[in-house]
Amino acid sequence: MNDWNPIASVYNPLKAGSIDGTDLEPHDRAVWRAMFARYKPNKGVVGDPLLTLYVARLNPQTTEERLQEVFSKYGQINRLRLVRDIVTGFSKRYAFIEYKEERSITRARREANKLVVDQNELFVDFEQERTLKGWIPRRLGGGQGGKKESGQLRFGGKDRPFRKPISLGMGQFQDWSGGAREWDRGSKERLDRGSKERDDRHTQRERGQSTRPHERDPEWGNRGARDERDRGREKDSYREKYRNSDREREDRRSSDKHRHRDRR
């Protein structure tokens, strides 16, 4: 964990295919292809790799003149190469720009990343083909890009850095294991106790005995029975009260009838 870095210093196809660089097996066939690929940087590429900028996600209609116009404001440009298809001549939507000074490439990388050019948001980073050891291009299953829809994302670059992996030390692991054993032991005892209580209640129901605590527990004494008797008395008093009120209403109605009859 001490040597962890979100940006890869050495390219490893297996780690690049993992979100935190800890996978032990490839999760797609492209990673397998990159692991067994033997790639050497193109010897035809000239210029200083430490002063070369990689620009991607270009609009297909963006031209060399447009790139020259946009990136020349960061410093003097020595070379600019827009990569095109060798057969059709169409843009492959990425380019390489070599600056004359180091401060120019640093500024361009910082300020031009996510810059919108011809309705497209650019991705700008240092060249890695000749500077990152073990580099495998995207066409061979490597790279550090990819679309989420394809399921072949690559990590370890500026666009998608590695996430910090979750790692537990040996001491923490032992404490956690001991705690887990204690928890399992306690939970097992609670489960056994609960199942025993359920069995006892079931047995008492079958025998017709009460399962209420105040009736089966001698510590409660007769308090539960007294409470039940008190509730019964209250119900009887309420019933008697309502009966008396009903009688009073009937008597009042009969007296009103007689009074009305006498008045006529």
Tell me about this structure:
By secondary structure, the chain is an alpha+beta fold. It contains 7 helices and 6 strands. The strands form 2 sheets. The chain has a 4-stranded antiparallel sheet with strand order 2-3-1-6, with helices on one face. A two-stranded antiparallel sheet has the order 4-5. It is 43% helix and 11% strand. The relative contact order is 0.12. It is elongated, with a radius of gyration of 42 Å. Strand 4 and strand 5 form a beta hairpin.
Defining traits:
264 residues; 43% helix; four-stranded antiparallel sheet; alpha+beta; 6 strands; 7 helices; two-stranded antiparallel ribbon
Compose a concise summary of this entry:
This protein is an alpha+beta fold and 264 residues long. Helices cover 43% and strands 11% of the residues.
What is the share of helical residues? 40-55%
| Order of neighbouring strands in the sheet with most strands | 2-3-1-6
Mean pLDDT: 79
Radius of gyration equals: 42 Å
Number of E-type strands? 6
Strand % is 5-15%
Shape category: elongated
Distance between the termini: 109 Å
What's the main sheet like? 4 strands, antiparallel
Q: What structural class results from the helix and strand content?
A: alpha+beta
Question: Which stretches are poorly predicted, pLDDT < 50 over at least 5 residues?
Answer: 168-184
What multimeric state do the chains show?
Answer: single chain
Number of helices: 7
Please write the string of helix (H) and strand (E) elements: HHEHEEHEEEHHH
